[in-house]
């Protein structure tokens, strides 16, 4: 049943932690038209389809076949699918559609969804035509000037300026169909508990929920069977902890623990049984690892762990927010590791789940950050809360994710020092995130003006090494740092929220602009510090990293940035992912050992 389309469009199974053998990939050619004033309401209103688009690439991108970056409030998609009704349920799924979507099947409204970065679905079984010729129509509304919707780095001006990039409208992640039985496994969620050497599983049953249902769970590490259990389904769900055999000795334990150095995954098979007959089966995976904060240290698997991260915008020149394909996502993970980083901060983007899959499989830590809205209104906050909740729900089970970041640099909450409502928004999102996930650290607002937070992140783009030493060197008392230092002209912590011993990390620095060749279509480069040649660029990176790595105050760092992104030419890599200086040279300085860990005796 799997129909992948062209090789370039194959993104792998789009929901990697709940995979089915039978699915249809709907990436490829769709009929398309712009609706500049968002005047059309139903498929019947669309009288002509003058364009053809390649999904999942947004119409602003070259890869879509359209490449129109003008202002359009809405757009429409349509395609035909050969799909005969059968003795099962048919689910239509969308990875992400920016920003508000309405979906029809054969003229019947099937789904509505708001939020440009999170998935949604529709059970379209009862809408299918008997002859097997089905028509799917999608309307995507995305007002380019609306600053109250979470939009991340998408520019609201016609030409990208400063640190903002071309807009992404409409479908930008995989669209697919899966056929499921009338009673099926709808959701799986994993929670590792390292203290008891246990894996928590929450499974939800969809469709027709009967009394005599049971769920069989099998966990394996390679050929080694770790557990095989069966649980009664009660009220449509199973919620259990599976205790694994604890080897006791660290050397043996470490073989089963997940880390960037040893990304051990546990393969899972779930089977749903009804009246003694297996009715559904899915594949998944999980991992045994812990990620938390203890006093002034970040802890991975119960041990202090220095974070060496790079800021990653997640854009590509020809496809924008959408990845060119699964190989490109894997390559980005491999390149980050090749440069000596053990983690990335995905900046202002809820990344494609296939990226998280490769980070899980290859071993790369991820900070997930909510794309910002840029006005503070009730509408903006409600939209942010809804979409952030959906993002946490989607990505909770990925072992690579270790930190959640609801706000960045006070974007969308610009008056934190003086307006109580702005503070409440940050504190509310912090506590909501901690409520939805008690297993990870949360940074309420990264960069400055910290209040409710587990880690204090500082953004400082000063390239003068002596200034860095004076601000953060060993002679600086922590109290003086937070009372007197103003990177970016902002206070580091808000009144009433003094430093309480949390880890301190330099979560944005560098931003060195060096561009050996001009990117096509980019009129002017932008950066914090400009360098004229590759050798000078390499030396500055080496000196800056050596200073930061050996600054004992910092429990981790995040360098800006992974790759050039349109006019922001401050990447270690060019936009096409070719390195500006040899990867081995970058890796040598990135992965150098530090003198000692903060708080260590």
From TrEMBL:
<dbReference type="InterPro" id="IPR051913">
    <property type="entry name" value="GH2_Domain-Containing"/>
</dbReference>
<dbReference type="InterPro" id="IPR017853">
    <property type="entry name" value="GH"/>
</dbReference>
<dbReference type="InterPro" id="IPR008979">
    <property type="entry name" value="Galactose-bd-like_sf"/>
</dbReference>
<protein>
    <submittedName>
        <fullName>Glycoside hydrolase family 2</fullName>
    </submittedName>
</protein>
<feature type="domain" description="Beta-mannosidase-like galactose-binding">
    <location>
        <begin position="73"/>
        <end position="151"/>
    </location>
</feature>
<feature type="domain" description="Glycoside hydrolase family 2 catalytic">
    <location>
        <begin position="297"/>
        <end position="590"/>
    </location>
</feature>
<dbReference type="InterPro" id="IPR036156">
    <property type="entry name" value="Beta-gal/glucu_dom_sf"/>
</dbReference>
<dbReference type="InterPro" id="IPR054593">
    <property type="entry name" value="Beta-mannosidase-like_N2"/>
</dbReference>
<feature type="domain" description="Glycoside hydrolase family 2 immunoglobulin-like beta-sandwich">
    <location>
        <begin position="183"/>
        <end position="289"/>
    </location>
</feature>
<dbReference type="Pfam" id="PF00703">
    <property type="entry name" value="Glyco_hydro_2"/>
</dbReference>
<dbReference type="InterPro" id="IPR006103">
    <property type="entry name" value="Glyco_hydro_2_cat"/>
</dbReference>
<comment type="similarity">
    <text>Belongs to the glycosyl hydrolase 2 family.</text>
</comment>
<keyword id="KW-0378">Hydrolase</keyword>
<dbReference type="Pfam" id="PF22666">
    <property type="entry name" value="Glyco_hydro_2_N2"/>
</dbReference>
<dbReference type="Pfam" id="PF02836">
    <property type="entry name" value="Glyco_hydro_2_C"/>
</dbReference>
<dbReference type="GO" id="GO:0016787">
    <property type="term" value="F:hydrolase activity"/>
</dbReference>
<dbReference type="InterPro" id="IPR006102">
    <property type="entry name" value="Ig-like_GH2"/>
</dbReference>
